[in-house]
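User: These chains co-purify. Model them together.
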Amino acid sequence: MTKPLISVEALAKRYPKRGGGETTVFEDIWLPIHPGEFVCLIGHSGCGKTTILNVLAGLDRPTDGAVIVDGREISGPSLDRAVIFQGHSLLPWMTALENVAFAVSSRHPEWSREKVREHCRFYLNLVHLSGAEDKKPSELSGGMKQRVGIARALAIEPKMLLMDEPFSALDALTRGSLQDEVRRICTETRQTVFMITHDIDEAMLLADRIVLMTNGPQAKIAEVVENTLPPDRRPATMHKHPNYYPLRNHLLDFLVTRSKTFAQDIAGKPYDPRKVPVVRPVPAEALAAV
Amino acid sequence: MTASLTLRAGLLSLLIFAAFVGAWHVATLPTVGAAAGDVDPEYAALVSGAAAQGAKSAFPTPMDVAATIWGHLKDPFYVRGANDQGVGIQLAYSLGRVLLGYAIAAAVAIPLGFLIGMSPLLHRALDPFIQILKPISPLAWMPLALYTIKDSNISAIFVIFICSLWPMLINTAFGVASVRKEWLNVAATLEVGGLRKAFRVILPAAAPTIMTGMRISIGIAWLVIVAAEMLVGGTGIGYFVWNEWNNLSIGNIITAILLIGLVGMALDLALARAARLVAYVE
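Assistant: Joint model of the two components:
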């Protein structure tokens, strides 16, 4: 296995509880992410998913543990780790192009104005926003705003893309087409991505590995599920693949029951947070054939 | 529909104006057969014989005032000695003081408000001073200003400065402190440096709030200049009003009142325009 691009090590977040003591949101989170990999973290609200992403982005600090990049602990935000936020978080007084240009000129302060604009147009084109460059975010639809956010993150050509439920505010149709595009772009550019979601289908479409987190407080990583769907999967057709339902049922089963009962399930059994089980859900007949 | 609403509103405005002028006209009609003789001779000397005898009201009729206004507008910039200058010149003096005091206040309040908004420590430390100084009537500073500055003109400008300061300072600090966290996060993840963040993210985000403060300030400054000039005297529209009161020239006073209102409206409109330039839709 290649050296991980980024490595989450023994991460924990605790808050002081009212009236003394501490609440542990999550603890002992170990997660290596390899170059070119699309990793999805699934869990219920309150398990600290967003906190983990913010720590990876450098916007939040963990109580314990560290995030290691290139053998060094990260100390703050970096242009190497671009974030696509849950809300589009575009600057409303700038046009679509200016929003992207603001990011690009942060990355390349030495670039000429024309070069920056050229670069921005390329990425706006990539997310099919040609023609909307000079519109303000308030003049764009929800899906278009999120596209600008994606273009802004991609345009700085980060080593890693962090996405915090980027499609959750969109309607189903827009979400589907945008997910498809993100998958295409990320596969073509071999972009390393860490994404948070609570949408199973989204994770199955986009992720190579799906990390399952138990419910908080004291949330942990229960297991890592490898995506058994073929790499050329599309949102419209992937449910016809024989592996679709075994994978989906496994994830759903985890979210519905096992995410709650995980602590009891592993009671008395060995649990190594650094080596959580890796699961490859396939149809029963395929298993029998092996 | 909107056009007809505008039209109807305009008609109603005219009607209200006509009713007001009509009532004024009736109230100032010469009273026929008023008992003469029981008039205090001193009062008669003051307001001219006809008015004292009740034949003519001391308060001018609408037509008198219209004539007076026309007289001022025909020749607004004459200078006939220190105490007799055109109303345009007086207004220019007042505007000059207001704009100068206001500009200095903006130059202090906006950077300082920025720092207060950025630093919770500075906010806490300066808050007691601001809370105590803010409710003080700006005119209360006048004696202190006259004593220390020893110049009535600069004292008036100082009073304008002090009254314009607070709304701009408080709004800037508030606007800067309440910039949305996600916009700051964007700047942070893009590793945007301090000055660039201040000018490209925080300032545009806070600009509408800052402009609201600036608009409140110019309104207060224009209110205060009249009172300040009544106190310090010499020049300015406030002094003009007071001088005409001493001359008991009600027509001139009414002219000045109208012009004060018009200039105040123009100042407010100018800042509303400027506010529209920096507004954004979230």
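Residues 65 and 251 of chain B are 5 Å apart (CA to CA).
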